[in-house]
């Protein structure tokens, strides 16, 4: 099987995909950049989500819960999200996209930055929501993308697969002039 340059995890919320990525990063002496998306809680109640730049830890609310749905703040994606991706492509060994989902559909600059990162020589490791929309489907259908489905039962197996993938992709990057 041909080694894909970009790898995404998908699966149920309970599969804690970013925890898997965090465990992998602890074992690799590489520079990472990009973003993660965190839930914002009041007590045990989910009130929204925020995007966090992994290099600077600057964050901004991307959505706020309201009765019957969500208010989406695309400017957070188009500022912090875009900057975190572009900086990672420029200076990191690996671009991390810790959550692509449905809220980004209206964030044109952010979607463009995601696509530019996927086209760059820097490998991307991310999380993609199972939800279907044109933006997510386009990413899943790219020839340079591999998507792994996580479950509560296969987290350890997935972590080892990612470690092997990272090792191989970074060695290949050095061979072909990146790194």
Throw out a few tags for this protein.
single chain; 179 residues; alpha/beta; Rossmann fold; 5 helices
Low-pLDDT ranges: 175-179
Give the total of beta strands: 8
Radius of gyration: 16 Å
- Which descriptor suits the 3D outline? globular
**Count of helical regions:** 5
What CATH calls the topology is Rossmann fold
Q: What structural class do you assign from the helix and strand content?
A: alpha/beta
What is the class in the CATH system?
A: Alpha Beta
Which architecture per CATH?
3-Layer(aba) Sandwich
SSE string, helices as H and strands as E: EHEEEEHEHEHEH
Strand arrangement across the biggest beta sheet: 5-4-3-2-6-7-1-8
* Beta-strand proportion: 25-35%
The CA-CA distance between the termini, in Å, is 24 Å
Mean pLDDT: 89
Count of discrete domains: 1
- Biggest sheet record: 8 strands, mixed
**CATH superfamily heading:** P-loop containing nucleotide triphosphate hydrolases
Percent helix, as a range, is 25-40%
Briefly say what this structure is.
This protein has 179 residues and is α/β, with parallel strands linked by helices.
Q: How would you describe this structure to a colleague?
A:
The structure is a single chain. By secondary structure, the protein is of the alpha/beta class. It has one domain: Rossmann fold (3-Layer(aba) Sandwich). Helix content is 38%, strand content 31%. The protein has an eight-stranded mixed beta sheet with strand order 5-4-3-2-6-7-1-8, sandwiched between helices. The longest helix is centred in the C-terminal third of the chain and has 21 residues, at 155-175. The radius of gyration is 16 Å and the shape is globular. Mean pLDDT is 89; it is low at 175-179.
């Amino acid at each position: 099987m041909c080694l894909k340059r970009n790898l995404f995890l998908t699966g149920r919320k309970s599969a804690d995909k970013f925890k898997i990525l965090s465990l992998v990063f602890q074992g690799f002496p590489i520079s990472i950049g990009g973003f993660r998306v965190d839930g914002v809680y009041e007590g045990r109640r989910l009130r929204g989500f925020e995007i966090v730049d992994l290099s600077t830890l600057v964050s901004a609310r991307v959505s706020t819960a309201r009765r019957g749905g969500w208010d989406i703040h695309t400017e957070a994606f188009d500022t912090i999200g875009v900057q975190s991706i572009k900086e990672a492509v420029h200076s990191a060994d690996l671009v991390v996209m810790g959550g692509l989902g449905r809220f980004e559909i209206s964030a044109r600059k952010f979607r463009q930055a995601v696509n530019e990162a996927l086209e760059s020589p820097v490998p991307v490791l991310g999380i993609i929501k199972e939800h279907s929309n044109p933006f997510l489907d386009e990413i899943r259908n790219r020839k340079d993308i591999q998507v792994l489905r996580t479950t509560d039962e296969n987290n350890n197996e997935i972590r080892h697969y990612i470690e092997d993938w990272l090792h191989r992709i970074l060695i290949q990057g050095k061979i072909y002039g990146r790194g």
